[in-house]
Structures are given as structure tokens and as C-alpha cells.
Amino acid sequence: MRFSTKAIHMGEEPESMQHGDVVSPIHLSTTFAKRSIKEVEEGYVYSRSGNPTRDSLERKLAALENAKYGLAFSSGLAAESTILLALLRKGDHVVAFDDLYGGTKRLFNQVMERFGIEFTYVDAREPENVRGAIKENTRMVWLETPTNPLLKLADIKAIAEIAHERGLIVVVDNTFASPYFQNPLDLGADIVLHSVTKYLGGHSDVVGGAVMVNDDEIYEGLKFHQNAVGAILSPFDSWLVMRGIKTLAVRMERHEKNAMKIARYLEEHPLVERVYYPGLPSHPQHGLAKRQMCGFGGMLSFELKGGLEEAVRFVESLEIFALAESLGGVESLIELPAIMTHASVPKEERENVGIKDSLIRVSVGIEDAEDLIEDLERGFEAVRA
Ligand SMILES: *Cc1c(COP(=O)(O)O)cnc(C)c1O
Fold it and tell me: Which one of the record's GO molecular function terms can you name (predicted)?
């Protein structure tokens, strides 16, 4: 079965439904009655440990990443926390990409470090930098590709080979590409995770996280900790995510088409210094993007000529793009990483990774591209004025 078909049908097979429902019902019951003592350990027992609606979603999630298992959590960060708690212990070391989602860095540095887990950040665009940071106590390599907000790429296959020589677990945050454009497990990663809040949910109305894996032992550890820690996705939110996933393929096609048009428009614009979009031949890792992704997604960033003041004037004058954090919904969003999503990163560190004050990040929605471009033109007029 191919992607679009799986996205619609997997996990919601009518024969697995009590009444032949074509859409998974929302099972709100927290507990499940048994007919006899003999059955008390069979089937569903309590909704934290297992729920029919969440199960449907988890089967669908697995199918999207060609994985054996899927797990749904109450947020992307809840999924990340569970991965770390399940697989690491005091004294372990993780090598991570230096351009991670801000909340991931906060979880690593301000929470996990307190429990004696160590992190080293490297520019993972160069796989040898990952090799160079591996120590005696390294257990895990943590990647995000493409990264936020500079759309840097890590070569998943090359890094997985380096990590596996040393028996390390490779985790890939695949939120930006979505499973429609990139499947890290097929490239050698051991664990793939998503903030389903973004493209999988797709409508900016549900916060959730997902983890997909093939390895039985890793899965057993994650499943135990999903229940033991308890950060599960609710039945209603599970249903919303399933509803979102059914249109993932058509949404991603349009996100990408619009993003490509906008990237080209921006690249030609005299008031733009630089555009970051993996689909542009000018992107320094365009070749890698073509190799490991089957599309380039809907996220892009650009540097405006001028500074923060011009960037503020630009984003404040738009009418269709909402000035907002987050990404991956049907509606276009725009934001200034230096003072919004990445404000918690110290200025010096921001500049080291390449985030300038005039950088503008765009989550391109699925509206009409011509309307979006006219809106951006409004922004440039405000800058010129
Ligand atoms: C949003 C995001 C997260 C965190 O997910 P939440 O659902 O907000 O907890 C993690 N990684 C990336 C790349 C994200 O964009």
C-alpha cells in the first residue's frame, strides 16, 4: 500500500471496528469491565496503558513511517522526554545537532542535565563532527533535519552508519519534513519522532507527539515508559490527529508547491539578502535534500536587507500571514526567530548558528499562492516606506 492510501485506511479498518465504522469512534472510557477474573489482564484494562482510539492512531502513525510500532504522546516534548527516560541513565552522553528546536534544547539543558545526562552539540551538517564528539559514555545521537529556523540538513544514512559502528541509538526529529517527504527509519535511524502539533495534526487545533520504531526491545522500553510516566495522548486528540493525517498527502503537496513559488519570488526580490529553502538549487545542501527527501516541505526562512526594525515593520504589515509561533497548519504563519521562537537562545549563540535579527521564518500554508505573494509585497512596501 502506498502513502496516501495508508494515511487514510491504516488503523481504521472497518473489520476492526465493532459496528463496521469507517471512522474510528472516540472511546472515552477510562476503564474496561471484565466478565471474569480470568480476563482481568486481557485486552484493554485502563486508558493510560491502552485505549482503542489511541491504538488506531498508533497503528496509523507506524504505517506512515514504514515502522512496526507507533506511540502517541501528549506533546512532542512529552515524546522526547519519554525517549530519554526510557533509554538513558545517569552518566550517559548524547551527541546532538547544534541547531535544534528551542524546547528540545531546554529539555536537554535545563531538565535532563540535572539527572546526570550529558549533551554535546555539533554542526551535524558534517557527519565527521558527530564521529569526533563520540565518547566512551555516548549512548545516543540526536538529529533534527531540516532544522529550525535555518533549514540545515543532516545526512541521516551517513550518521547512522557512524553511530551504529559504536552501537549508538540514532533519534531523528522528523517534524519539519513530515513522513510524507522523509522516512528516517528507512535511512537507518532507530527512532523517529514528530511533534504532531505541526503537519500531522495540520489544523493548529491539537498538541501531540509521536514516536515510531522497528526494534522490539526499544519499543518495549518506550511502551513501558509511556504507561509508567503517563504522558499519553487523549482519545479525543487521537481522533483529531487521525482526521488530520487523512489529508496529509494532499496538504504537503500544496504546502510544497506554495513554498517553492514563494522561495523563488523572495530569491529574486531586491530587498532580500538570502533565502533558506532546501528546494532551491542555491541551498548549500540541495543535493542531500534531493537524495534523502522526496520533497522539500513548507518551511522557509529569509534575511531581509536591514535589521530588526525593518523585519518588525515587514511582519506587522501583513494581512494574511498570522504573526505567530508554531508551524505546519493550513494557515500561513510568519515570525521573527530572534525575538520569538529563539529569544531564549543567547544572542551570541544565535549568531554562532547563523540566526540574524533580520531573519524571518515562514510556515507556508495551503492558501492561494498569489494571495500570499501579494501579502508579502505589502510587507516590502512597508519596509520601503
Ligand atoms: C514544535 C516542535 C517540537 C515540540 O513539540 P510540541 O508538540 O510543541 O511539544 C519538537 N521539535 C520540533 C522540530 C518542533 O517544531
Answer: pyridoxal phosphate binding
Q: Where are the domains of the chain?
A: 3-245, 249-384
Distance CA 283, CA 187 (A): 22
Nearest CA to ligand 1 atom 7: 76
Place of cell 559504536: 166
The pLDDT tens digits for 161-174 are 999 999 999 999 99
C-alpha span between 258 and 281 (Å, rounded): 17
For the stretch 116-148, pLDDT in tens is 999 999 999 999 999 999 999 999 999 999 998
The amino acid occupying position 375 is: D
Question: If you measure from the C-alpha of residue 333 to the centroid of ligand 1, how many angstroms do you get, rounded to a whole number?
Answer: 16
Q: Is 35 a catalytic residue?
A: no
Overall pTM > 0.85:
yes
> Which residue among the candidates 48, 257, 261, 378 is catalytic per the annotation?
48
Q: How far apart are alpha carbons 13 and 22 in whole angstroms?
A: 7
Low-confidence ranges of the chain (pLDDT < 70): none
Confirm whether 131 is a catalytic residue. no
Catalytic residue among 55, 155, 173, 190: 173
Fold of 3-245: Aspartate Aminotransferase; domain 2 (3.40.640)
Q: Which among 283, 146, 167, 154 is positioned nearest to 215, based on CA atoms? A: 167
Task: Report the CATH number of the 249-384 domain.
Answer: 3.90.1150.10
Choosing from 6, 59, 60, 101, the catalytic residue is 101
For residue 265, give every residue at least 6 positions away whose Cβ sits within 8 Å of its Cβ, in sequence order, or none.
373, 376
**121 in catalytic set:** no
First to last CA, the chain: 54
